[in-house]
Input
Amino acid sequence: MSRRGRRNKLPEPRQVTIDAMSHEGRGIAHVNGKTVFVFGALAGESVRIQVLKSNRNFDQATTLEVIEASPERIRPRCEAFQVCGGCNLQHLANDDQVELKQRALLEMMTHAGVQYEEVLPPLRAGEWGYRKKARLGVKYVKNKGRVLVGFRERNTSFIADMHRCEVLIPEVGYKLDLLSEMIGQLEACASIPQIEVAADADHIQLVFRHLQPLSEHDRDLLIEFGRQHNFHLQLQPGGPETVCNLFPEEQGLNLDPVGNGQIRIAFNALDFVQVNNEINQKMVAQALRLLDLQPTDKILDLFCGLGNFTLPMAQRCAQVSGVEVDAAMLTRARESAIANHISNTDYHSADLSRPDEDFVWMRQRYDKILLDPPRSGALEMAQLIGRFNAIRIVYVSCQPSSLVRDAAIICSQGYRMTHLGIMDMFPQTAHVESMAVFERKSQESK
Output
């Protein structure tokens, strides 16, 4: 055997006891004093594991066999659970998933020394078939004689061999085999790497990325597939700007952030919108309630995107200033404000990781602030948040560690955290979305 072969040989499987659960939803075991993170294992279980990757301080492993199961263990619903990288908590009931996520967030905040006063009830909705936005990988595999359509395998770049997805909306998730068969009939089947999925309450849009021009035969086959399954189809031969309608000629998607049809925000399949529409509506409603908006309030909406929070807030206060780095999304936010007859918003293009204190919106005062940053958080704006003199701040987070870091900074600037809680935006996964509320301390209490 070559040296390379010896280096890459995996260690022999071994039996371990799972001592606890990590914040990422993996079991934690200890072998010869070294921590091992184990996919598919629960606290208290005895399992046989295979170490897949070894680091200096810890190993990563997967569960091969459950020898002594936890009473909390359930049977995963998806047949591809062991290989697909899309979900990692299907072996745990949803009630227990939510408890795990909330406990993880609170422990992280406590460990960082950030105090909170009230824990919000978790925002929850349907556990399955909730995902209305996704990017599916596509790969023609000659050895299998078929096209694979699905998510990437866990810890690899390969497309998982799966036949249905339980978290995607059923109109798409239960038709992966049909998509596979149809793409397999295309002359360009080997040059389609992905399908973007996006849906609103009325339409489902599929964007086919293709690396070579499609023949008339292929276009006709796609159109017939769209007509038969009630999909709106688009083609993407290059970058995002090349997306064009294939079937029907006129199409579009609209987001309803409040859930009552009063606000409709147009979006494209490649835009960022929340994948879970029901949780998004509950999230917006909770943010509006916790901000306690008043008719005279002036609001700053940081990382405003398409206006998911901007427009609902504008209906309840005097003025909302939205700030976003993506100029195209900002343009659509302005257009949506006009389309919804909302005239008390203004928009500013800025990279909030490098805020310029000379920006007009940076020199103003605001009654309240909403932040909805990406996973990296809002470090730079948290460091400047005190300059706006807002009485209340609502922070919507998609990464707990970023929220914990930024919360400590905000609290150091004369604020206290009054509310903290999670939103189960991604059931069956360990992904944690959360919301925190900060109020300015009174002068007397400082």
Observations:
- The two ends are 69 Å apart (CA to CA).
- Confidence is low (pLDDT under 50) at residues 1-6.
